[in-house]
Design goal:
The protein has 320 residues and is of the alpha/beta class. The chain is built from twelve helices and 13 strands. It is globular and about 55 Å long. It binds iron/sulfur cluster (SF4). The site of iron/sulfur cluster has 10 residues, from loops.
């Protein structure tokens, strides 16, 4: 475990249309995931893994949540497990969620997961006390799953679907299934019909229909227009939320979105400027311009260590 992780398990609060101000809890080292999705906004997966680990002690995370909420009472409407990676790879999740719920019983606790480990009874048990779980499902067949989500070789779509169905039967909280549509890959009418059939089988409370709205891990990946999203939503018979401009940060320019990603990245770990472009899958020029603005605004600063320049949060940012 790296000390830097212990210092930075929280991010935000970030605005969410349905949750209000949501404090993010990130217990996974970037970028550790069971998938390597083409559209991932956190860049390529550097550690493709199915191994669940205690990357950070649960009591350290709880202490950070407590300290933040003591300092910023009233500024958080929800707590959300969300990572530049897959949160259910955090092995002590089954201890941490009940501990947070016990300490903050009235704050809704949400888990955003790619759903690939729900076949594991320990993962399902860990999520039972969350108020809302949002697993993902982008593919209705193995071919699209392999092409779009680029899974760990030991994962199968059938196994994942079984986990999603079993969890539906066991979980009494709000079960929202997120489907992210990528132009030309999983948005054909035939594939949408197959996805809709799987959704009927799984039986989530709602579908959250999303698309690519931030710079993806792989260039050339495109999202759907608002019209195409509305047409896709019509395939589903359960309630569908087409994620709007607010979640998509549509009010923000591409530059502002990149600035937020850079601030989030260095709040998780100090990062040499030259590694940031690779880490986020964007051009070095864009990173340089964004860093100049962020340093000028006093949000980030440069710090020399061992002959290298690292980008670190300014004091105010690190205290958030
Ligand atoms: S989008 Fe989510 S599931 Fe896909 S690679 Fe990124 S973190 Fe992992």
């Amino acid at each position: 475990m790296k000390a830097a992780r212990v210092l930075s398990a929280l991010f935000g609060p970030v605005p969410s249309r349905r949750l209000g101000r949501s404090l993010g809890i990130d217990v996974i080292p970037p970028k550790t995931c069971t998938l390597d999705c083409l559209y991932c906004e956190s860049g390529p997966t550097t550690h493709l893994s199915l191994r669940r680990e205690a990357f950070i002690p649960p009591d350290a995370v709880l202490a950070q949540v407590e300290a933040f909420l003591e300092r910023h009472a009233g500024s958080v409407d929800a707590l959300t497990f969300s990572s530049a990676g897959e949160p259910t790879l955090y092995e002590p999740l089954g201890d941490l969620i009940p501990a947070i719920k016990k300490r903050f019983p009235t704050l809704p606790l949400v888990v955003l997961t790619n759903g690939t480990l729900l076949w594991d009874p320990a993962v399902r048990r860990a999520l039972l006390q969350a108020d809302r779980v949002v697993p993902s499902l982008d593919a209705a067949c193995a071919e699209v799953f392999a092409r779009l989500n680029r899974p760990h070789p030991r994962l199968s779509l059938d196994q994942i679907l079984e986990g999603l169905e079993i969890f539906r039967r066991e979980y009494a909280g709000a079960y929202h299934l997120e489907i992210l549509l990528v132009s030309g890959i999983n948005d054909t009418p035939a594939h949408l019909r197959d996805l809709a059939a799987l959704v009927r089988r799984i039986g989530p409370d709602r579908v959250e229909l999303n698309t690519v709205v931030r710079p993806p891990a792989v260039s050339g990946i495109r999202g759907l227009s608002a019209k195409a999203m509305a047409e896709a939503a019509a395939f589903f018979s359960c309630p569908v939320d087409v994620l709007g401009a607010y979640e998509a940060r549509g009010g923000q320019s591409r530059e502002e979105v990149l600035e937020e990603r850079l601030v989030t990245l260095v709040r998780r770990r100090p990062c040499p400027a030259e590694e940031m472009a690779d880490a986020l899958g964007v051009s070095a020029e864009a990173v340089t311009r964004a860093l100049e603005r962020l340093v000028g605004q006093g949000r980030l600063r440069l710090q020399e260590f061992d002959g290298r320049q690292f980008v670190v949060p300014a004091q105010d940012e690190s205290e958030k």
